[in-house]
């Protein structure tokens, strides 16, 4: 494993060379043999302050593995993003399988045979593995929705020896390595002409890497092509036919892999000759201080009885086959896992019960899952890095911008973070640069103990050396450091001592000359024979886990609560269980149910519609003009059509404010709320204008004591529930709410899905408004106002997430049932009316807390 520079004192030993000085020794790739399946021609891309791609031309031929290498920020991801249609180039053309275009879209590229696995998985957390896999397929290759589980299981079966993944599991429950397996398996299942893999092995376990290489070989043997991005040059040398080097957005050249040595590639990537002679600076050569970090009898999930001491100035490595508890121990010490035992920093005993408590006790943890736990998107580099150092840079709670800039700036410079400036959004940085910023945060916390989990993940060869040097400097400054790495070579280079884990315990301790790559790898393998597969996380499926998996769980809980309230009311009053009572209550229930179902549509995409109440009022007012007395049946139908059109227009206005003008949904629909209220009051300042009694008698028809409209509401809820999981639009709706930008990358036109959601929501208010017409009989402008909040309450009770992606129409219906039940039972029990509010508020809090708790537990496990 020589995937890194071997240089104890890198920067001093490196000799700057002109690019031309490192290029002539290597052979230039033959671009003529084999058919070209992907061609990029004069592609150029600028971001504010960065010329990311400088007129790059590249050809990838069939049956070939074409590696793309370069430092962090060189432009690799941007270039393949352009090839896949997810990044729009300023100029240049993309040609896939003979067809070219200047403006490719993800769908265009996929349909022509290009599949891509992004550095950050393009999976939708709230959709199941099977739904994600199906959605990512080109339209012609998608299985029927009913067959998707069997189809996904068949594809994942190929990976079963390295990753046991249940196709029904929501992706949010998968561990990072399993997420990548799903992505890769899906992309290969497309049988693409060319597959792009952007740092695919960063998160994979060694057996999965081996499986990937076998599949890649099969793919190319069948005539497919691969574009392979990696910082692991040993992997590149192992599999690539051609190596293209990018530096600062420009193509240095494309070379035959056989003609270049690993050292040649390093020099080409860095743009200078880098001395890779390795001098390990061990603890024996350094002065170490007193024992600084002491852990006694630490036990928790997947580990047991861990004793550990680290001295000031010492770097201790955690090694072992993946899944032997080493990561769990590190996370528990960083405050990210339950545990028992004693943890001491210096002479203080600390309780790392949370990351904040660990930090407070002097322990900082660098996560291995940068995408989910490390990066704070939307915040600048500076803000991301200074988050753990706020105490040091503020006085009486006020942050000193000068100190913050100085501190973060110096750290960024020492790590060579590549960004236009320190104020840009961290999300705009390349993956490796994001990793450097997250590491900066840990260093800036100035904690006595640093726990670094895969510190060089996704980081280029030059920066890797810089990170080693920074960790060594931190040790030299008296910190105690623990490094977990899947690379034995990395541990050899960094550590004074290495602890090898097996089945949740420390199986071996390597010191002195035993701290070498070979001995570490050997110890890891001989220490254990059982390899845990990548999977869905915990093997133990607990109550919360099972409950939180289903979107129907909230509905079941609501039903039980409704029945209990009903039993109480029935025991207290003889009139509760009578047809007369039901004939009074059910129309109210149907009205609220339509409001809740409508609200659920927009909440599914992470939106909200405050205008539903006034819209209903406006529709009642409009009806008092167009459905006034004694219309013919045709007139009535036309009248209802007008109401639908009015509602659809309001939905479209909401959508354009949110999507085109880009106003937050809460504000946008608050604006519409006021405008619609004003308009309705303008038309009918006071309730007036009779609505046709014949029309009202039709819509208030009953079967026994059950109103027809209540049955319609149930049917609508059930049909929409079916559509949500079994139709393309339903899945796109959930995908858009789950993670909009990722859904876009999967070919979902989120803009139009959002339009459908807002228009759909408004149109579903028409039946609710008709029921209100029955109640008022006249044009009453404010009759719907109170339903805005009630609709949101009912949908939340039904399990809707305000962040989108989760919820259920049956749940929303049952939420409306419970709200109506509370109102009725309070009256039957003769309780004061404020009990309605208390019960509703109390139950909403209990429900929200329950859903939130169960969801958090599921995601953590
Ligand atoms: N959306 C964006 N907005 C602004 N700048 C961006 C954006 N995406 C990328 N960049 C910039 O473009 C340059 C190239 O980034 P890119 O992600 O392509 O690099 P990379 O070679 O893939 O790096 P890494 O190896 O770290 O993943 C970087 O300077 C990056 O900060």
From TrEMBL:
Entry membrane topology: Multi-pass membrane protein
Subcellular location: Cell membrane
Ranges where the ABC transporter domain occurs: 38-273, 287-528
Membrane-crossing segments per the record: 552-570, 582-598, 610-630, 636-658, 665-683, 703-725, 755-774, 786-803, 810-829, 835-852
Chief subcellular location: membrane
Keyword Cell division attributed: no
InterPro entries referenced in this protein's UniProt entry, alphabetically: AAA+_ATPase (IPR003593), ABC_carbohydrate_import_ATPase (IPR050107), ABC_transp_permease (IPR001851), ABC_transporter-like_ATP-bd (IPR003439), ABC_transporter-like_CS (IPR017871), P-loop_NTPase (IPR027417)
Molecular-function GO terms, alphabetical: ATP binding
Alphabetically ordered keywords of this record: ATP-binding, Cell membrane, Membrane, Nucleotide-binding, Repeat, Transmembrane, Transmembrane helix, Transport
UniProt-annotated stretches for the region Disordered: 1-31
Protein name, as recorded: ATP-binding cassette domain-containing protein
Source organism: Gordonia prachuapensis
């Amino acid at each position: 494993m020589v995937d890194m520079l071997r240089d104890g004192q890198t920067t001093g030993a490196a000799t700057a060379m002109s690019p031309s000085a490192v290029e002539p020794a290597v052979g230039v790739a033959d671009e003529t043999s084999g058919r070209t399946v992907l061609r990029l021609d004069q592609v150029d891309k600028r971001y504010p302050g960065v010329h990311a791609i400088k007129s790059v031309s590249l050809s990838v031929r069939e049956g070939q593995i074409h590696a793309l290498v370069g430092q962090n920020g060189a432009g690799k991801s941007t270039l393949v993003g352009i090839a896949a249609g997810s990044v729009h180039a300023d100029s240049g053309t993309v040609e896939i399988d003979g067809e070219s275009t200047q403006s490719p879209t993800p769908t265009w590229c996929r349909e022509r045979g290009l599949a891509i696995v992004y550095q950050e998985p393009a999976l939708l957390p709230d959709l199941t593995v099977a739904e994600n896999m199906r959605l990512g397929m080109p339209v012609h290759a998608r299985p029927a929705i009913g067959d998707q589980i069997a189809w996904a299981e068949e594809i994942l079966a190929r990976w079963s020896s390295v990753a046991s993944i249940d196709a029904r599991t929501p992706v949010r429950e998968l561990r990072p390595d399993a997420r990548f397996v799903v992505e890769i398996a899906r992309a290969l299942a497309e049988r693409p002409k060319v597959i792009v893999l952007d740092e695919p092995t960063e998160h994979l376990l060694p057996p999965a890497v081996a499986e990937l290489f076998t599949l890649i070989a099969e793919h190319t043997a069948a005539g497919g092509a691969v574009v392979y991005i990696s910082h692991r040059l040993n992997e590149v040398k192992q599999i690539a036919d051609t190596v293209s080097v990018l530096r600062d957005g420009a193509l240095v050249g494309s070379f035959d892999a056989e003609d270049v040595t690993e050292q040649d590639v390093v020099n080409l990537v860095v743009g200078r000759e880098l001395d890779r002679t390795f001098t390990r600076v061990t603890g024996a050569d350094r002065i170490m201080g007193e024992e600084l970090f002491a852990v006694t009898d630490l036990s928790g999930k997947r580990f047991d009885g861990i004793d550990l001491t680290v001295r000031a100035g010492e770097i201790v490595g955690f090694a072992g086959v993946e899944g032997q508890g080493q990561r769990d121990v590190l996370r528990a010490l960083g405050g990210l896992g339950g545990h028992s035992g004693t943890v001491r920093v210096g002479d203080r005993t600390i309780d790392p019960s949370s990351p904040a408590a660990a930090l407070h006790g002097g322990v900082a943890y660098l996560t291995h899952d940068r995408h989910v736990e490390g990066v704070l998107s939307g915040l600048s580099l500076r803000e991301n890095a200074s988050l753990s150092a706020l105490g040091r840079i503020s006085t009486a709670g006020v942050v000193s911008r000068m100190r913050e800039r100085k501190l973060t700036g110096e750290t960024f410079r020492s790590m060579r973070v590549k960004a236009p400036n320190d104020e840009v959004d961290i999300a705009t940085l390349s993956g490796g640069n994001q990793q450097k910023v997250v590491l900066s945060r840990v260093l800036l916390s100035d904690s006595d103990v640093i726990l670094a989990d895969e510190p060089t993940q996704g980081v280029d060869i030059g920066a890797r050396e810089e990170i080693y040097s920074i960790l060594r400097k931190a040790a030299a400054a008296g910190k105690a450091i623990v490094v977990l790495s899947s690379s034995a070579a990395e541990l050899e280079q960094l550590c004074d001592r290495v602890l090898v884990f097996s089945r949740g315990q420390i199986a071996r301790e390597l010191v002195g000359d035993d701290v070498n790559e070979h001995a570490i790898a050997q110890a890891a393998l001989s220490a254990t024979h059982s390899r845990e597969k990548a999977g869905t996380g915990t093997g133990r499926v607990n109550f919360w886990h099972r409950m939180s998996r289903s979107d129907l769980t909230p509905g079941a809980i609501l039903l039980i609560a409704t029945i209990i309230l009903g039993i109480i009311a029935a025991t207290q009053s003889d009139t509760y269980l009578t047809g007369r009572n039901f004939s009074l209550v059910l129309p109210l229930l149907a009205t609220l149910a339509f409001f809740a179902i409508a609200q659920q549509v927009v909440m599914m995409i992470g939106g909200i519609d405050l205008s539903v109440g006034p819209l209903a009022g406006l529709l009642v007012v409009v009806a008092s003009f167009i459905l006034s007395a004694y219309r013919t049946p045709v007139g009535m139908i036309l009248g209802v059509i007008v109401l639908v059109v009015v509602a659809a227009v309001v939905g479209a206005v909401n959508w354009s404010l949110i999507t085109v003008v880009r106003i937050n949904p809460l504000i946008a629909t608050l604006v519409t709320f006021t405008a619609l209220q004003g308009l309705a009051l303008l038309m009918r300042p006071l309730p007036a204008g009779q609505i046709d009694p014949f029309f009202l008698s039709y819509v208030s028809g009953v079967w026994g004591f059950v109103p027809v409209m209540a049955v319609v509401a149930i049917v609508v809820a059930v049909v929409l529930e079916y559509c949500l999981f079994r139709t393309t639009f339903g899945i796109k709706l959930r995908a858009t709410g789950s993670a909009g930008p990722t859904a876009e990358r999967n070919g979902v036109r989120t803009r139009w899905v959002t339009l459908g959601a807002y228009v759909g929501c408004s149109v579903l208010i028409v039946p609710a408004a008709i029921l209100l017409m029955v109640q008022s009989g006249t044009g009453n402008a404010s009759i719907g106002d109170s339903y805005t909040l009630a609709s949101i309450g009912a949908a939340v009770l039904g399990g809707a997430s305000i962040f989108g992606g989760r919820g259920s129409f049956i749940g929303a219906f049952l939420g409306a049932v419970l709200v109506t039940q509370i109102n009725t039972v309070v009256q039957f029990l003769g309780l004061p009316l404020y009990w309605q509010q208390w019960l509703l508020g109390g139950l909403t809090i209990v429900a929200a807390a329950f859903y939130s708790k169960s969801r958090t537990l599921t995601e953590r496990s």
